[in-house]
Write a structure and sequence with these properties.
This protein has 446 residues and is an alpha/beta fold. The chain folds into two domains: 39-161 and 318-387, 3-Layer(aba) Sandwich (D-Maltodextrin-Binding Protein, domain 2), CATH 3.40.190.10; 164-316 and 403-445, D-Maltodextrin-Binding Protein, domain 2 (3-Layer(aba) Sandwich), CATH 3.40.190.10. The chain is 41% helix and 15% strand. It is built from 20 helices and twelve strands. The protein has helices spanning 2-22, 39-42, 59-73, 90-95, 110-113, 124-129, 139-142, 146-149, 170-176, 187-197, 213-218, 239-253, 267-275, 287-291, 331-341, 344-352, 362-366, 398-401, 404-421, 425-445, and strands spanning 47-53, 77-82, 102-106, 157-162, 164-169, 199-201, 204-211, 278-284, 299-303, 313-316, 318-324, 387-389. It has a five-stranded mixed beta sheet. Strands 6-7-8-5-9 form a five-stranded mixed beta sheet. The longest helix has 21 residues, at 2-22. It is found in: Cell envelope. Residues 1-19 form the signal peptide. Keywords: Periplasm, Signal, Transport. It holds the Pfam family SBP_bac_1.
């Protein structure tokens, strides 16, 4: 009996050890979470992760949208946010020896804000180690940085996929007795409708169509860039760019539909939301833009117009990216944080509050705006009606592509020269090409 009791005791202890061992590694199997976390992370050592951004976000919004959810998910984590402000640019933080662990930005700032400062960090190994499924993110957003990196490595992960949609003022259409626009319209159809909606009525001048043309030029569905990623030379003075200019110039050639005599970045948004004298406006889908629309305004949204040769294709994705800084001493913890911020669980909540995420999950797309009072009763399907256009071919020349922001400014200024000053389109494109090449030549001499 004693031998039998001893064997029973050994067997019980063996089962207990097996049970404890099987519970030692956490893993839920949910997309975006780890199933094989390294021992140092399982121990949950107290760790601080510092965020910073070139994009404005109040500390209150950061805590609500990012900080608090992270602390709830990772109680061992200290989350710190450096708000944008004087003396807190990424260059200032680097000089002070206090760069963040995670930085977020609009993708086209990567060459200037990260790459030129030597802060880029390839997350490929961490993506493999943590089995992060990049196929859950739309390729157009995921590959947005390739034109700056030559497609070698993954230096940022998208968490917002910005694109254009067309807002419209229902009250103006009701006033004129004209049917509302609908999803899937082409530019030709929208321009015809804009002509009908541009008129004087009861002493008020109404414009049929407005646009955020700087964005439409920059993120055009044709994949055109003012600097050729392959040659590193200006590429504005081409037939392709001329056709794009001509297509958007038609908006302002409609009699009575000229935009304000201003070189401001986007006076059209204010005119649509505040003055409320614009019937339709093709604008960026940024949630902050929607928040500018006053309560009580009778508006809705449809998909952005498409070109005949680019059916079902919106503009290029303009994603907001998360990057881990090369200087971070907490890269693994930072990546675990990013894995959660890009998990289906987190992206679903973001989608519900009206953020267009770069998800490929149809259920997350369908949930867009469902918890937001701004989108109640709106045609939210318009936000995912089209697919994003793919970014242009890769380059990988950081010295040249770091000038893309300046080149985009040249493009917008030349477009304004035409519509505001009456400059000939061929002259504007030729001058723009010359200005961009001078920027390139100057950069090469440094």
């Amino acid at each position: 009996m004693k031998v039998s009791n001893c064997l029973a005791t050994i067997l019980a202890l063996s089962m207990l050890v097996t049970a404890c061992s099987s519970g030692g590694t956490q893993g839920t199997g949910k997309s975006g979470e780890n199933n094989n976390k390294p021992a140092e992370l399982v121990k949950r050592e107290p760790t601080e992760i510092v965020f910073a951004s070139e994009l404005g976000k109040t500390p209150e919004d950061f805590e609500k949208e990012i900080g608090d959810p992270l602390r709830k998910k990772f109680p061992w984590l200290t989350v710190t946010y450096i708000e944008r402000g004087t003396g807190k640019d990424i260059t200032d933080l680097l000089t002070a020896g206090t760069p963040p662990d995670i930085y977020w930005y609009v993708y086209n700032r990567f060459p200037n804000k990260i790459q030129s400062l030597g802060l880029e960090y390839d997350m490929t190994d961490l993506i493999k180690k943590y089995k992060f499924d990049t196929s859950r993110l739309e390729s157009a957003s995921l590959k947005a940085l390739d034109q700056f990196t030559g497609g070698k490595g993954i230096y940022g992960l998208p968490f917002v996929s910005s694109t254009s949609v067309m807002f419209y003022n229902k009250d103006i259409f009701n006033k004129f007795g004209v049917p509302y626009p609908k999803d899937g319209m082409t530019w030709e159809e929208v321009l015809d409708l804009a002509k009908k909606m541009t008129r004087n009525f009861d002493g008020t001048s109404y414009r049929g169509l407005a646009s955020f043309h700087a964005y439409l030029l920059r993120e055009n569905p044709q994949g055109l860039k003012p600097i050729d990623p392959k040659t590193g030379k200006a590429s504005l003075n081409t037939e392709e760019w001329k056709k794009l200019f001509q297509s958007l110039l038609r908006i302002y050639e409609i009699p009575g539909n000229m935009r304000p005599k201003s070189r401001a970045t986007n006076p059209e948004l204010q005119a649509f939301a505040k003055d409320q004298n614009i019937a339709m406006a093709v604008l960026n889908n940024d949630l902050n833009h929607v928040k500018l629309i006053p309560e009580g305004m009778n508006w809705d949204v449809v998909s952005m117009p498409t070109y005949a040769d680019k059916p079902k294709t919106a503009d290029q994705a303009s994603p907001w990216m998360y990057s881990i800084m090369s200087t971070s001493k907490q890269k693994e913890a930072a990546f675990e944080v990013l894995s959660y911020l890009l998990s289906d669980e987190f992206l679903l909540n973001e989608s519900k509050r009206g953020v267009r995420t770069p998800t490929t999950n149809e259920q997350i797309k369908k949930a867009f705006g469902s918890d937001s009072p701004f989108f109640k009763g709106k045609n939210v399907g318009a936000y995912y009606y089209h697919q994003s256009a793919q970014p242009p071919s890769v380059s990988g020349n950081p010295q040249i592509m770091s000038l893309i922001l300046d080149a985009d400014t040249v493009v917008n200024n030349k477009f304004l020269d035409i519509i505001l000053d009456g400059k000939d389109i061929n002259t504007a494109l030729r001058e723009g090409d010359e200005e961009i090449n001078k920027l390139i030549e100057k950069a090469q001499k440094k």
